[in-house]
Amino acid sequence: MSVQKPSIPQGTRDFGPAVVARRNYIFGVIRRVFEKFGYAPLETPTMENLSVLTGKYGEEGDQLLFKVLNSGDFLTKKNAAVTAEDLEAGSRKVLPKIAEKGLRYDLTVPFARYVVMNRGTLTFPFKRYQIQPVWRADRPQRGRYREFYQCDADVVGTDSLLCEAEIVLMMSEVLNTLGLTEHTIKINHRRVLGTFYQALGGEGTEVDLFTAIDKLDKIGQDGVTRELLERGFSEASVARLFELLSVQGSFAEKLQQLQSAFAAAQVPTEADGSYKGLQELGQVQQLLQDFGFTHFDHLEFDPTLARGLSYYTGCIFEIKINNVNMGSVSGGGRYDNLTGAFGLPGVSGVGFSFGVDRLYDCLEELNLFPEAVATTTRCLLASFDLENSRQLLPILRQLREAGVAAELYPDEAKLGKQFKYADAKGIPYVLLQGPEEQAAGQFKLKELSTGQEQLLGWNAVLDALTK
Amino acid sequence: MSVQKPSIPQGTRDFGPAVVARRNYIFGVIRRVFEKFGYAPLETPTMENLSVLTGKYGEEGDQLLFKVLNSGDFLTKKNAAVTAEDLEAGSRKVLPKIAEKGLRYDLTVPFARYVVMNRGTLTFPFKRYQIQPVWRADRPQRGRYREFYQCDADVVGTDSLLCEAEIVLMMSEVLNTLGLTEHTIKINHRRVLGTFYQALGGEGTEVDLFTAIDKLDKIGQDGVTRELLERGFSEASVARLFELLSVQGSFAEKLQQLQSAFAAAQVPTEADGSYKGLQELGQVQQLLQDFGFTHFDHLEFDPTLARGLSYYTGCIFEIKINNVNMGSVSGGGRYDNLTGAFGLPGVSGVGFSFGVDRLYDCLEELNLFPEAVATTTRCLLASFDLENSRQLLPILRQLREAGVAAELYPDEAKLGKQFKYADAKGIPYVLLQGPEEQAAGQFKLKELSTGQEQLLGWNAVLDALTK
């Protein structure tokens, strides 16, 4: 076995103790909010059959799936031996013969697969959350990884707008609990976008319109204009679009203005004279009011929000942190046909997802991680020699029995080295008991951050370490 | 996109809400004990480079690694295009050209890789724990999965036997906290096995002897005898071996008997007249006594314990649950050269691992899961109609503000259906407030397990749900 310099794959990361502790803090906040709202945990396997994954994320997504090689003699499986002609035809021809499994690409498709496989035993509406890593063979770059965690909450089997309102509540509670108070929860409705298309009079295609609007953040009004003109929209239509998109005022005022504008453009309404997208947004707002939601200043109806070309059919959501320069930290929406690809049509659901890496970066930039999160060991017992170590063992046991994370430096070493160890590990307290202190029935407790040293009896030590 | 009946890969599992909650309970107990002993969390990537994994688990292990196909056009990578000759030569020849990464096979090799990559910045002794899944392309069978979690704790950079003693303490605390009080923690020392070999007078090989002893549990004394005779050991030697293995009595008595037996067989001692394996076991026992360890009746010196042919060089551990018919739920030991393969020789460490699936099965068989673990939502608000739902929203908010996991049935439905939902989800309480109760400023709280219904004021409701 030759000696090698080890490395980890591009785009993947080791998380050392301090980072895991901080990530677990974020996961814990999210998990507690999800559970308080009645969402229950689900975990699905890392590997899914490629037949489940392929075709669900578009052509580009299929390329970005990590595929797992069949085990054993993968070239010569019965019914699927790789031939010289296959090799000639290239990777696409060979792939299905040598790989049947892939790594989870998101948490939504495995969730849909789970719902369909267990539809006979699940209780609907089914509310689940899922906090697991996903993998994408994307080109790694700053802030983009090939392995990263998603935190999803979805409810399927109901089209009640209460679910949308509760998503806003959950988003708000997670952000405020983390201290990310400077945020904007943006909300829109897929059918508002559809009504824009109708209001423009039928030029171009809906897909072209949504794709262009989705880029507004990145390429600005000029870029979107250019793109729409290229795609066959008239200058008058584009001008009309930006007039519609520029509605101002409160949530309710914007809804009202668009209602009037759509009516003026003679876009057909529902039987009751309303536009369904606007109407549902109004209902969500009303439910939040009934709830006693107090953060309306952080909720914005943003008619330019498009959330890509994904499967959403109703309300869509996105969160921006206002005082950090970063993309959205969360997004989601309602979909009417999540499980259709697996043979179970007509199951409506709504859900959203937090990106943990971005939340982490925001908390770090704003210095919002609580200090207590950083370390696990609270007290190091330092010893003068092996005999002293032996005497400290019952002390160590009693500290742990009191719930204090504690350790004894395991080797015979100078006190300076032991203090350095505590300092490097971020252990806040060092406890000593030399012959003098022992004779007096006391301990020396040193707080490393202040340098303060105290001579204390056992009960006072326990008090200091458990408070 | 054609409709398909979805499935998951062989040997993998979905974990629904009830199972996740129970697994998280086990993980939580283990994590808290690890942290109380000063072990800090580490997480490594799911994929490792095959150069890191290959050759670390023996020939068979290499076969059981899941390999990840290179992304993109994997057949024609520069410097590694697959040729017709490669195809002819077979899978082994093609593999290194199309796969550079594999899935984590255990937590030990990634830990060693991490230590070597970060040796400049880590503080030694480095105590880490790691709770993550691993993957093995084993033939799936009852109780053996292709994806399963391991919970490891290791300390490297010290050869202090305090670490061995603390492993016994951690094992004992985890098992007792889980309620698995009927257990045996078996301990042995690799050098005791080595001394057996010397005592037999140099027939056969050490590897053959250890391999045979390791099977004693499975094939019994007759099987081991047959195997050793086949491998060139004499009948006298085998008889002598079983005489040595059959020592009886307390921990200390067994140590004493073997010391005498080895001396009688004229096996060379250390300079101080001791046998190092026996001596270290004695020291571990002494440290546990100093600690005030009270469960010596569960600790057994088992000279037949061999723990396979792995990399252990010092003490070895294994846990059996006595009242469940199942293999060991935990094992570990000391190794002197964990990081040698990565160019960092001489780093001594000791660690152990819990198998969560087996612990889970034991708790289930013995009915030891606490009831409170089973559900997350504590109270369902049932509503009579949409108007009633709206009135219940502030109640829902206040319950959650008080930390009560609560949900409102989102659709208009008959009460019977809502109660059925609560029952199926294992929600213990249903809260109602019809017009009558509202007029009286009261609520109806029903406990589903007993059927008991109470008319209560708001404070009494909060009391009942938060107690």
Automatic annotation (TrEMBL), chains A, B:
A GO term from the CC aspect: cytoplasm
UniProtKB keywords: Aminoacyl-tRNA synthetase, ATP-binding, Cytoplasm, Ligase, Nucleotide-binding, Protein biosynthesis
SUPFAM superfamilies cross-referenced by the UniProt entry: Class II aaRS ABD-related (SSF52954), Class II aaRS and biotin synthetases (SSF55681)
GO molecular function (one): histidine-tRNA ligase activity
Subcellular location: Cytoplasm
A family per Pfam: HGTP_anticodon
Aminoacyl-transfer RNA synthetases class-II family profile domain location: 1-394
The UniProt record lists the keyword Ligase: yes
GO biological process, one term: histidyl-tRNA aminoacylation
EC class (word): ligase
Enzyme Commission number(s) of this protein: 6.1.1.21
UniProt record similarity statement: Belongs to the class-II aminoacyl-tRNA synthetase family.
Complexes and interactors: Homodimer.
Protein name as annotated: Histidine--tRNA ligase
Lineage of the organism: Bacteria, Pseudomonadati, Bacteroidota, Cytophagia, Cytophagales
Primary gene name: hisS
